[in-house]
């Protein structure tokens, strides 16, 4: 059975790694990929193509024959893709706020050398509502990147280096540049700028002479107006642009404009059948794209490719991803059934309670998902459709028809009539109590062409002709009947929309235009789903925390009954357990945000050390003080007596909790030191009391461990939950108030232990001799020290990484339950089975290997699910690894010779020193590179664990079996 499980585990691990490599191909057709909602295309010097489509949420990498080699997925849409001179791939992403459809952030990402991971190299965050992007162009230069950025008072071009540092190259003042600028390019060696405006004009600006020349005006073309955009350049500094009004690609050389395909000469019917080019890139050949195709220049013509063939690697990866997922799902399902059967038969009450809790929560969740939530979402969508229809009607009724009739040219952008229309629509959509989550677009029909005359983003100028013909369209039906329509779940390149198309009427002329009012349903549904998910998670977390607290309350009442019966003889372990629970509860309320809080305080100082190091010092100060007092606190306990010593320590701890409210990094470090000093003495007293109770020693230490984990989980979760409606400092103050319960508990239940009951142990060997024994120092240095230090991944590194991935502080707190519930549910079960199957030493090494796997995954895959998986893996490792450490150490012959109490003090000191070093270690990993640092750490702990195993085998004590 043991061998079968080992083989199955190896198989699962192999297929898991295989799925990590091939998972991006899971939902792709294994033979060909149909392009849809293409956004941009880029070409490398080797002729490979990079295409982003699906509204920017899919990235395709192809060879020079357009065979797909790789597929990447992204949550935030990619709006532009480019290649620098070193063939490094850069993306511009836009993050949208769910609540009002405005831009929350623009960011530049670099695709790593292995072309499977993306790294953020620059970001621009926006606090206020913003409908238009500021970064209007990205292009490569050597190993760097050139960014075109527009602001309200002008626009400029900036160089972005590999360190994310932005350097201004040129800036041109221009009033309302954020509205007027469509696109632009910078010719650095010629010191010229070309830029395109929303009114259909293109200008050349000579930087040295400060001379501006108009070289294109789409409104002056004879046969059909031009609507230029997307300026770009080739390596010879020739300027190209797409022209939506002409369905063509323009080419500027020496101030003259010519056209690539001649579509501007097409007749009306032919013109309406042509797709418009939305982006153009020129290197060795012209490459353009429309919404549904990629165009390559072949024999002087642009040939479209609507479907891309998948390369051989992609075909293999597509099948491997499906097979890997199927194998893993089958193994998980089988072992889930086996595990449930085992739990039902197993007599451990904690595991059974966890199983019952999961079943109850699962049943409630299923009920909500099947009955309540679908009805709620349906009602919300009906309400959205109703609002859309009403707002469209209100807008149509308020639009002045005489103004709209005058907007019939690309040159009308921001004219007097355009501004009159804008003022009216802004009053409806942009007032403080208005419908800011809706967009508004105005259409008219000119010469059988449907065109946009106004959009609330002001990104389409005042004349933006569409591809489809007017005849037979919904627009024609609405104009003829005068009756509006509501569209639900309408999919386009930007997402899924619900909108209403309503006629604009003028007396004696009938319908003269259409108003479209809508909302991004995808974002709206995501917002609703976020609210529902938050409700479900809060419900689950609250249920778990309530169970934990009730469990501790029941234990306390049991201990209180014992105390009333045998008062004066001893303090029941249950009473001590309650004290442990309270200490870990109050000290962990701030765990989910304490590193972030410290980083914020550091930003307000001018100290030389980095914020990460200051944050790690804050965390280390508490555990360092706890380490010192755990070892030397017995002096205080003997001199003052246990009651006075712990009451004094409780006061010190309370003062530390209060001092954390003061927003100063140095006071925060002092506060953490006082907190650690306080609980160091109190927990030493608890351990001493438990060890004196020979009859219930094992039960007492088991209760201590359970109370610690319960307190940690409840504290972290309560702190995370409070983040929904309280500030950092308010939560810290609340924790200080709750810590008064510890003082009350100490005053009420802790008395001085009678000297006659204290059986001082006198070890047979000295401390130095004990620490120099090979089995002792190899265990402490090779296993305990690195493992406990790595455990501070949970307290320091995980909150920072989760925050960087966009997880809310409350969810960070909630997610700790993944780790805690695994430890509580699996601790007794796995510890027993691991010892039975493989012994203590092998079990300790396996726990270290699980740690290493978790770190390797976090360093290799930047995703939220992998972060949650790391919590689960560390919970599995700790569930049997930590108990095995204690039992292995206490079973050593050297420990028996030295004395359990003194050995426990040394063990506690090593633990606390490791906890002090943990935050510093992870702080330096953040500074010097997360990916490489975690991989080195993973390899290092495995090497140390194997060293411990080899040394313990080599130096057996005269043949005595140690692996027990």
Low-confidence stretches: 755-763, 954-964
Distance between the termini: 20 Å
Taking all residues together, what is the mean pLDDT?
Answer: 80
Helix content: 40-55%
Radius of gyration: 34 Å
- How do the strands of the widest beta sheet line up side by side? 29-28-27-32-31-30
SS element count, helices = 25
Largest sheet, described in full?
6 strands, antiparallel
What fraction of residues sit in β-strands? 15-25%
Instruction: Write down the overall geometry.
Output: elongated
Structural class: alpha+beta
Topology, number of strands: 32
Walk me through what this model shows.
There is one protein chain. The chain has 964 residues and is of the alpha+beta class. The strands form eight sheets. The protein has a six-stranded antiparallel beta sheet with strand order 29-28-27-32-31-30. α19 runs antiparallel to α25 (930-954) and α24 (900-928) runs antiparallel to α25.
Notable traits:
964 residues; alpha+beta; 25 helices; 52% helix; elongated
Draw up the topology in text.
Blueprint (H helix, E strand, L loop, with lengths): L1 H21 L9 E3 L5 E4 L5 E5 L4 E5 L5 E6 L4 E6 L5 E8 L6 E9 L6 E8 L9 E7 L2 E8 L2 E7 L5 E8 L3 H4 E7 L4 E6 L3 E6 L4 E7 L10 E6 L5 E5 L4 E6 L2 E4 L8 H6 L5 E4 L3 E4 L4 E5 L2 E5 L1 E3 L2 H34 L3 H50 L2 H4 L11 H14 L9 E8 L2 E7 L8 E6 L4 H8 L3 E8 L2 E12 L3 E11 H45 L7 H16 L5 H9 L8 H30 L1 H18 L5 H28 L4 H26 L5 H11 L1 H10 L17 H5 L2 H17 L6 H8 L4 H52 L3 H28 L1 H6 L1 H29 L1 H25 L10
Helix pairs in contact: 1-4, 5-9, 5-21, 9-10, 9-15, 10-14, 10-15, 10-17, 11-12, 12-13, 12-14, 12-24, 13-14, 13-16, 13-17, 15-21, 19-24, 19-25, 21-22, 21-25, 24-25
């Amino acid at each position: 059975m043991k061998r079968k499980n080992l083989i199955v585990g190896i198989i699962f691990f192999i297929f898991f790694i295989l799925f990590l490599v091939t998972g991006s191909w899971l939902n792709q057709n294994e033979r060909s990929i149909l392009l849809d909602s293409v956004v941009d295309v880029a070409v490398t010097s080797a002729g490979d193509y990079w295409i982003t489509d699906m509204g920017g949420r899919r990235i395709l990498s192809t060879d020079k024959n357009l065979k797909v080699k790789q597929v990447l997925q992204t949550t935030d849409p990619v709006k532009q893709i480019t290649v620098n001179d070193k063939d490094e791939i850069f993306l511009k992403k836009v993050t949208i706020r769910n609540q009002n459809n405005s831009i929350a952030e623009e960011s530049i990402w670099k695709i790593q050398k292995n072309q499977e991971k993306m790294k953020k190299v620059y970001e621009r965050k926006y606090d206020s509502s913003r409908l238009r992007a500021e970064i209007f162009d990205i292009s490569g230069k050597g190993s760097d990147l050139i960014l075109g950025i527009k602001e309200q008072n002008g626009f400029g071009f900036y160089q972005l280096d590999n360190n994310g540092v932005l350097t201004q190259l040129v800036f041109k003042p221009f009033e309302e540049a954020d509205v007027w600028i469509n696109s632009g390019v910078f010719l650095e060696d010629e010191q010229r700028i070309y830029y395109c405006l929303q009114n259909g004009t293109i200008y050349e600006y000579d930087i040295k002479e400060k001379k501006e020349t108009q070289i294109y005006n789409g409104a002056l073309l004879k046969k059909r107006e031009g609507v230029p955009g997307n300026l770009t350049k080739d390596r010879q500094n020739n300027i190209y642009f797409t022209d939506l009004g002409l369905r063509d690609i323009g080419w500027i050389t020496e101030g003259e404009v010519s056209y690539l395909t001649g579509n501007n000469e097409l007749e009306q019917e032919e013109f309406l059948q042509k797709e418009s080019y939305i982006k153009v890139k020129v290197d060795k050949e012209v490459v353009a794209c429309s919404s549904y195709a990629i165009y390559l220049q072949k024999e002087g013509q642009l040939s479209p490719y609507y479907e891309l063939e998948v390369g051989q690697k992609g075909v293999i990866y597509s099948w491997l991803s499906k097979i890997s997922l199927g194998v893993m799902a089958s193994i998980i399902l089988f072992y889930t059934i086996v595990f449930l059967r085992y739990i039902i038969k197993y007599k451990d009450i904690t595991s059974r309670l966890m199983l019952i809790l999961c079943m109850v929560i699962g049943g409630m969740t299923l009920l909500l998902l099947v009955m309540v939530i679908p009805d709620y979402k349906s009602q919300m969508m009906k309400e959205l459709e109703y609002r859309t229809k009403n707002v469209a009607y209100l807008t149509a009724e308020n639009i002045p028809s005489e103004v709209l009739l005058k907007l019939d040219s690309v040159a009308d952008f921001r004219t007097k009539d355009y501004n009159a229309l804008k003022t009216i629509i802004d009053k409806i959509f942009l007032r403080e109590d208005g419908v800011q989550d809706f967009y508004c677009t105005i259409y008219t029909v000119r010469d059988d062409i449907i065109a946009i005359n106004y959009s609330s983003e002001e990104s389409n100028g005042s004349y933006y002709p569409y591809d489809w013909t007017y005849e037979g369209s919904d627009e024609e039906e609405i104009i003829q009947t005068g009756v509006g329509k509501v569209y639900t779940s309408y999919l386009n390149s930007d997402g899924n929309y619900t909108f209403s198309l309503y006629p604009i009427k003028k007396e004696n002329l009938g319908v003269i235009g259409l108003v479209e009012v809508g909302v991004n349903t995808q974002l709206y549904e995501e917002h609703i789903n976020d609210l529902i998910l938050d409700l479900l998670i809060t419900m689950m977390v609250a249920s778990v925390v309530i169970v934990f607290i009730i469990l501790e309350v029941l234990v306390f009442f049991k201990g209180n009954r014992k105390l009333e019966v045998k008062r004066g003889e001893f303090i029941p372990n249950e009473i001590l357990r309650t004290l442990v629970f309270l200490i870990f509860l109050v000290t962990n309320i701030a765990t989910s945000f304490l590193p972030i809080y410290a980083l914020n305080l550091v930003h307000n100082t001018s100290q030389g050390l980095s914020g990460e190091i200051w944050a790690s010092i804050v965390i280390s100060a508490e555990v360092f003080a706890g380490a010192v007092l755990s070892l030397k606190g017995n002096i205080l306990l003997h001199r003052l007596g246990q009651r006075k010593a712990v009451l004094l320590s409780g006061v010190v701890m309370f003062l530390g909790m209060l001092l954390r409210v003061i927003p100063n990094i140095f006071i925060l470090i002092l506060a953490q030191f006082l907190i650690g000093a306080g609980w160091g003495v109190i927990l030493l007293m608890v351990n001493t009391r438990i060890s004196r109770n020979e009859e219930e020693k094992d039960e007492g230490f088991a209760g201590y461990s359970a109370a610690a984990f319960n307190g940690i989980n409840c504290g972290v979760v309560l702190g995370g939950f409070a983040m929904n409606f309280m500030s950092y400092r308010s939560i810290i103050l609340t924790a200080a108030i709750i810590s008064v319960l510890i003082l009350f508990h100490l005053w009420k239940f802790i008395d001085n232990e009678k000297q006659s009951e204290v059986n001082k142990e006198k070890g047979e060997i000295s401390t130095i001799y004990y620490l120099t024994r090979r089995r002792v120092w190899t265990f402490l240095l090779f296993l305990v020290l690195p493992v406990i230090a790595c455990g501070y991944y949970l307290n320091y590194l995980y909150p920072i990484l989760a925050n960087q991935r966009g997880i809310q502080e409350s969810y960070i707190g909630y997610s700790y339950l993944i780790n805690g519930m695994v430890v509580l549910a699996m601790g007794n079960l796995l510890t027993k089975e691991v010892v039975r199957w493989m012994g203590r030493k092998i079990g300790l090494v396996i726990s270290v290997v699980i740690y290493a796997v978790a770190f390797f995954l976090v360093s290799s895959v930047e995703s939220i699910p992998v972060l949650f998986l790391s919590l689960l893996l560390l919970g599995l490792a700790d569930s049997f690894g930590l108990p095995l450490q204690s039992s292995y150490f206490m079973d050593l012959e050297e420990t028996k010779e030295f004395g359990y109490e003194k050995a426990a003090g040394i063990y506690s000191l090593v633990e606390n020193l490791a906890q002090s070093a943990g935050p510093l270690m992870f702080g330096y990993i953040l500074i010097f590179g997360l990916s490489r640092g975690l991989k080195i750490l993973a390899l290092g702990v495995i090497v140390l664990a194997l060293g411990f195993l080899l040394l313990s085998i080599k130096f057996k004590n005269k043949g005595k079996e140690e692996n027990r």
